[in-house]
Structures are given as C-alpha cells and as structure tokens.
TrEMBL record:
Species whose genome carries this gene: Prauserella rugosa
Transmembrane annotation, as ranges: none
Pfam assignment, any one: Rhodanese
Record bears the keyword Transferase: yes
PANTHER family according to UniProt: FAD-DEPENDENT OXIDOREDUCTASE, PYRIDINE NUCLEOTIDE-DISULPHIDE OXIDOREDUCTASE
Name the UniProt record assigns to this protein: Rhodanese-related sulfurtransferase
Domain Rhodanese: 15-106
Keywords: Transferase
Entry annotated with the keyword Hydrolase: no
MF (Gene Ontology): transferase activity
Length: 116
C-alpha cells in the first residue's frame, strides 16, 4: 500500500461516541495520558497480538492513533494489508487529540494526564 492510499481522518472528524481507538504508542506514553476506552497495543507488538486484534470490531472502522501520526500510519497500513480490521489513521495523533480538548486519562494516581 502506498502511503498516499492510507485511510486517514483528523481528530475533529472522529465520532465523539462509539469510536474504537487503537493506541500504538509505547507503554510509558500510554501511562502518561491516553484516550478513555482506547485499546493499547504498541506498534512493535501488533504482529504478535492477533488474539487482542481479533477482539476489535469488524463491523466499523478502528481508528489508529500514536503521538503525531507516523507510527499509526504504519500500523494502519499493516492492519489493512493483513485484512485484520478496517483501520483508519488519525492524523496529528494524541497531540491533536489534546489540542482539540478531547478527554485524557492517565495511569498515575494523582497526576494530570499529558501527551508525551
């Protein structure tokens, strides 16, 4: 798949409810701040995560997000090529998510969520 053919959307175009979000950032990035309800599978773990990927819905798009959009574009390309899900890259990633004022949560008690 050619990079120009990767299905892409912006954070502002994401549905505010019911969207399936797959976060492919590393564990420390995830722990610092992530979207509520997102599924976390680091990019390097995707090929070995077939059981987790099989749990994602196959009747609607899975929006793939990282920090700014590079890793999620590679993940989207891989997921679509493998035919595992209908993946859509989220341009601008979690940085845009934060800028758009979308909700964030973190895994550190008492800490403010942040995008690393």
């Amino acid at each position: 798949m050619n990079p120009a053919e990767i299905p892409t959307t912006s954070v502002s175009e994401l549905p505010t409810e019911g969207a399936v979000l797959l976060d492919v950032r590393e564990a420390d990035e995830w722990a610092a701040g992530h979207a509520p309800g997102a599924v976390h599978i680091p990019l390097g773990d995707l090929p070995a995560s077939t059981d987790q990927l099989a749990e994602l819905p196959d009747d609607r798009p899975v929006y793939v997000i990282c920090r700014t959009g590079g890793r999620s574009a590679r993940a989207t390309m891989w997921l679509n090529s493998a035919g595992l899900v209908e993946a859509v890259n989220v341009a601008g990633g979690m940085k845009s998510w934060q800028t758009e004022g979308r909700p964030l949560e973190c895994d550190h008690d008492g800490a403010e969520p942040e995008v690393l």
